Fold this sequence. Notes:
By secondary structure, this protein is of the alpha+beta class. It contains 17 helices and 21 strands. The chain has 2 domains: 2-234, Periplasmic binding protein-like II (D-Maltodextrin-Binding Protein, domain 2, 3-Layer(aba) Sandwich), CATH 3.40.190; 279-502, Dipeptide-binding Protein, Domain 3 (Dipeptide-binding Protein, domain 3).
Amino acid sequence: MKRIISMMLCLMLCAALVPAVAEGNVVRVAYGYDPNTLDYGMSNLDTANFILTHIAETLLTQDASGAYVPGVAESFKKSEDGKVWTFTIRQGLTYQDGTTPITADDLYYAAQRLLNPADPKDNATFNFVNAEAYYNGEVSFEEVGVKKLDDYTIEYTFINPTYESAFTSTSLYAPLEQAYVEAGGEIYGSSSYLPLANGPYMVQEWLDDASVTLVKNPAYHDAEKAKVDEISITLNATADVTVDMMLAGELDIASIQNPLQLQTLEDAGFVKGESYSSTYQGLNLRAGGRSEETGKFLSNANFRRAINTALDREALAASVMNGYTPAWRLSAPGEPAYEANPDYRGWDTTANVELANQYLNAALEELGVTKDQIPVLQLMCYESQGAIDSLAAVQDQLRVNLGLETEIAPCTIQVMISNAMSGAYDLWWGGNEASVPDACESYLDGFRSNSGSPLRGYADPEFDALFEAAVSSPTLDERLANYAKLEAYFCDNAMCIILGWDAHYLVTAPGASGFYLKDGGDLDVSGFTK
């Protein structure tokens, strides 16, 4: 307890030394919503990801060239099979108070906390050896593949080969000071109990639903990285408000998705920069359906192909999916898996009505039924007008192009998630996050026969074999080559109806530089100049 009190006093003194308004170079950005929490184990919003990019340094980081470079770790080595990684931590590192040291204990605790079955975290991952067994209460944490070898050495043992990109994860590979986190209890990570930062910046002020201000962390080990004196973040700025703020000179950089708003800013002399995708949107499909009746059809590959081929993605993007690029495969442009195999196309972006009906007739023949025996399929979504309008357009296309009848089922976010996790849906309007280096652990693992979750409802040994070949690849090049086969199988069998990739553009005033996107779409503005 004395240590906690001492640490809190140090933090208060440190904060008191930070001026209320930073002088010099300030970069101003805006986000549509509050970060909700900055708890590394629970954060999952773009706003939080942006903040954590700047305040939490992980074992490895990514620079503007795309290279993975040392962060908290000064060096590392990996086993020949890529499953065992040993990191040597820089000595002399501290948190923002300048006195609390960062050691292997802090990384060991971060992993233990994330996997703690008594206090489940949204970002828990079971990639370590015995992680899932620990989560299920079958083994102790000492048997999990996370070992502190000494005060400045930590070792991770994975079920499958792992790559440098994994160690930029804030959830697992940024240090946490146990006494400080536990002193915060349930409010740790909130505006009233901020994380103990170890990155180039720290949170000076967080006004709920209004703004967040980041200032330089005086204890950070590489002062040259933090070229911006202050990062000012406006919260709850809708797309229209963001555009107005740019035009009024109140923002320095913005992420714009709507093509008309993008054109407005370009016409005003702003510069359209790099494009990126962070999610793909469409109809999540459960092969087992929400009932035995609908599952009979949705488990048939030709029936799924009929739905996939009957939808006109270009028409949807032009009408109800503003800001989305019509998708022609699973991997989105900018993802390593896409760039490794850029010429692959999984389907057309316009509807092919003739082919769609050929697929439908093949399905009916395989199932031994007639068209009038097809049940009404449910289209589940969150009760927002945008989601309902999008599904109305999908509903119309399926009726006109295939003669299929559907019903739209809007529901609260709680009911929607509950139905999805329990497998009580046919088609579910939603998005999935783009990931690095591919979609295996973050998405496709849910389609495995032995995934342990009713979310997708597939039992497909051929998919399972392709998935295992990808995740067990000893090198990244081999993984991406095997992933290409997995992606092709996924797309050929229409295992999910992906309609569009969100297309964001970074927009700035002329002459702005020093900002870049990391893999996965996280924006780094620590070197911003204008």
